[in-house]
Amino acid sequence: MSYRDLIMIGGALSLFCAGMFAGPPLLRTSAGVPEVEATKVASADRAELENLKTGLVEVDAREKEAALRAQDQQRIRELEEHIVAIRQELASRDNARIESVEKKTEELGNQLVENGKADEKRWDQAMKAIVEVKESNEEASNSIKRAIVTLAKSVNDQQEAISDQQAEIEKTLESQKKEMKKEIERVAAEAAENKDDEISLGTVTNTSTVLVTRNDVPQTKSVYVYVDRTPPPRRIEVRSIAPSYRHRWVSGYWRWNGGSFSWVSGYWTLPPSTGSVWISPTYVKVIRGSKPYYRCSPGYWTGGSSRKHRR
User: Fold this and answer.
1) pLDDT tens for residues 140-193?
2) What share of the chain is helix, strand, coil (3-state, %, to 5)?
3) Which residues, at least 6 apart from 83, have a Cβ–Cβ distance to it below 8 Å?
4) Angstrom distance (rounded) from CA 116 to CA 121
5) Distance between CA 249 and CA 299 in Å, rounded?
6) Alpha-carbon distances of 152 from 2, 134, 161, rounded to whole Å
7) DSSP state of 202
8) How far apart are CA 175 and CA 54, in angstroms?
9) Dist CA 300 CA 250 (whole Å)
10) CB-based contacts of 294: which residues, under 8 Å, 6+ apart?
11) Is this model's pTM higher than 0.70 or not?
12) Within a 10 A sphere around the Cβ of 154, how many other Cβ atoms?
């Protein structure tokens, strides 16, 4: 997905949320149109919103994966440049040593010719020096080979680490897709359970809170807050740079404090477990008895090694 597509998705999401919470009602019933049709349209809008959220999560994961790959490529380039610099330095040292030995040998030969006799002792010393220099050169050459082998192994280890990270990212994405699918199925099941609820466009008055505890989620309790006041429009936030590729963004939302709404700003945080996905709080307009309410579903972490972590 390109940056342009991401902007289009974000714009669509902003327009949808603004129209849902601030603008004129998105659903209108008219004469001759059953209210069941209006309920179906609302369900379709919620499904489209969930699809947009899923797309944004996938785009974030891909951007992080691309950033990791760029960092790894930069590390490999630095290692290669370091290997080239070591080779050049060692080659320069070898050339200097060879030139020095050749110069000394030439000087000793000239001196023997000028004196007219072969100084056996000096000759032995010269030969010994040559042997030592050759041995030193061989040792230096072996050191170069060992350094190259070590650097090559380090590069291979880096490449294996990159492959492991890519596999982990792909595994995390796959896990997130499965968890999002389960969440969509759960929302659909809840919608089916509440199929008798009707959408109301009446004016919201008074302020009260109704707490309902449900036990239909294994090993957890889902607490819904019913508020008869319209939530403010969702704010548009600008994300800062993530501290690391393991951090996940928790979007801001309006929290009901019993008498008014307060805005909770978005932030970066570490998920409770690898592969966890943050599900943002939602407000759904429903009818309870004869009065319209907004049902607030709290946000929570899902997926990963544990089941659910609600906030």
Assistant:
1) 888 898 889 988 887 888 778 777 777 777 777 777 777 777 767 776 666 565
2) 55, 15, 30
3) 148, 151
4) 15
5) 13
6) 36, 27, 14
7) P
8) 13
9) 10
10) 226, 227, 228, 229, 230, 231, 283, 284, 285, 286
11) no
12) 15
Residue 308 CA to its chain's centroid (Å): 20
**In the block, which residue shows the tokens 């010994």?**
128
* Cα separation, 292 vs 197, whole angstroms: 10
Determine the longest span between alpha carbons in the chain, in angstroms.
Answer: 129
Burial of 283: CB neighbours in 10 Å, binned 0-12, 13-18, 19+: buried
Cβ neighbours, 10 Å, residue 214: 12
- Count other Cβ atoms within 10 Å, centred on residue 61: 17
What residues have CB less than 8 Å from 264, skipping those under 6 apart? 252, 253, 254, 255
Cβ(252)–Cβ(239) under 8 Å? no
- Reading the block at residue 97, the tokens are 């040593």
- Which residue matches tokens 């072996």? 142
Asked if 302 contacts 240 with a C-beta cutoff of 8 angstroms, the reply is: no
- Six-digit token string for 210: 């109704």
Task: Tell me the pLDDT tens digit for each residue of 43-85.
Answer: 887 888 888 888 788 888 888 888 899 999 999 999 999 999 9
